[in-house]
Design goal:
The chain is of the alpha/beta class. 36% of the residues lie in helices and 14% in strands. α4 packs parallel to α5 and α5 packs parallel to α8. It is globular and about 65 Å long. The structure holds iron/sulfur cluster (SF4).
Length: 402
């Protein structure tokens, strides 16, 4: 899921990588010679996170995007569609509808999904589950390769309510999960995930202490399998530090870190055991949880100076266009306004600008970066200087989400 270097070698994505590497080499040579930078190739990012809205109908203690929720800024729907239409012929392949905000609250969410699919894009939706009727309506337009992931984080109705504080007083986790069979029946090829951010005592959002949920891991896996989800995905709780970056902060685990990690390991084991009888159901461990458990998470905070993923994957929000999900809404990570890519040359100029000025070695030194391996792989290709082949002997898996 998170082997981005492998994904980038697929035939559908490789030409963009090749063009980018060639441009970086020319740009570095021009800088060394004191000459102006060459123009970026006439390309757009391969994949975007698209926050359709900052509105949210929950008030989760553990929300990483708390500071950017429920803002006045909105997308200009027509301009947003124009931007996407211009990005597709320039290489855009996939869109993850996510937030900072609950995507299904966007007026016209269902027709927007239809529009994305008509453009031939792979589409994913990350939702809080509160408006699964909209997901059900949109399912007819989705298909193989697309996915929907619901951020649920609990097994019991009680803990789920305390963690998420939904505006609708009667909404329950039971009701949310009851939609899954209907969504799967409407679109069997669609992958549906139950997302579980693991929280522990000591974690906080500012002064707000989060509810611990790691004791409900196995019960949540059982609920996910019984409800008809295809997988449950476990990931660790992230916090936003003062400069806006999303970071993993194991130092804030109250009590013995080793004891908490042992409980998480036990939760994963119990989750696998509890769901062993459900054929095809998967227990997925996120990259940052894997490196936290392995004790190697600090390795993932060492980034090259240039984050190459800024060219290949960007974040479009009503607040502006940003270089990375880990810096969503942060001024120094902003490329431009929301619909920057409505003028592709402007998007390319802004991308070249941030590639030059954003020092990931400094700005991301606390971030356990999921793109760490892909960034160093790209840095190696650029520095190697050898011609890159036009094609690689890599199978096309049609997994274009970055
Ligand atoms: S180095 Fe990683 S965290 Fe930093 S901007 Fe790039 S992808 Fe994001």
């Amino acid at each position: 899921m998170h082997d981005f270097a492998a994904k980038l070698q697929q035939p559908a994505l490789w030409p963009a990588v090749r063009d980018y590497v060639a441009w970086q080499r020319r740009a570095r040579a021009a800088t060394a010679a004191g000459q102006p930078l060459p123009d970026l190739p006439d390309r757009a990012p391969l994949s975007i996170n698209l926050d359709l809205t900052t509105a949210c109908n929950y008030a989760c203690d553990h929300c990483i995007d708390w500071d950017i929720l429920n803002q006045k800024q909105k997308h200009d729907d027509e301009l947003l569609r124009a931007a996407l239409e211009r990005m597709v012929p320039r290489g855009l392949r996939s869109v993850i509808l996510i937030g900072g905000g609950e995507p299904t609250l966007y007026p016209g969410f269902v027709p927007f999904v239809q529009f994305l699919k008509q453009l031939g894009l792979q589409v994913a939706v990350v939702s809080n589950g509160s408006r699964n009727d909209r997901i059900l309506q949109a399912a007819q337009y989705l298909g193989a390769g697309d996915w929907v992931r619901l951020s649920l984080d609990a097994a019991s109705n009680d803990l789920w309510r305390r963690m998420h504080k939904p505006q609708k007083a009667t909404l329950t986790l039971d009701e949310i999960c009851s939609f899954v069979p209907a969504i799967k029946a409407a679109q069997p090829a669609l992958q549906m995930g139950f997302s579980f951010v693991i929280t522990w005592r000591g974690g906080s959002r500012g002064a707000v202490e989060v509810h611990e949920n790691l004791h409900e891991m196995a019960a949540a896996a059982t609920r996910a399998a019984q409800s008809g989800f295809d997988y449950i995905s476990f990931k660790p709780f992230l916090e936003r530090q003062d400069d806006g970056a999303e970071v993993l902060d194991p130092a804030k685990v109250r009590g013995e870190l080793a004891a908490v990690l042992a409980r998480i390991e036990q939760g994963l084991r119990a989750s696998r055991e509890a769901t062993a009888g459900f054929p095809g159901f998967r227990v997925v461990v996120s990259t940052n949880l894997r490196v936290l458990l392995a004790g190697t998470w600090r390795d993932y905070t060492q980034q090259p100076r240039t984050c190459h993923m800024q060219m290949l994957r960007q974040v479009l929000t009503p607040l502006g266009t940003f270089n990375c999900p880990a810096h969503r809404g942060v001024a120094k990570a902003q490329l431009g306004k929301a619909e920057l890519w409505a003028v592709p040359a402007a998007g390319q100029a802004a991308t070249a600008g941030i590639l030059g000025r954003f020092d990931a070695g400094v700005e991301c030194q606390q971030v356990t970066c999921l793109y760490h391996g892909a960034n160093w792989w790209l840095e190696g290709l650029i520095e190697a200087g050898a011609d890159l082949p036009v094609e690689l002997p890599v199978e096309e898996r049609r997994d274009w989400f970055l």
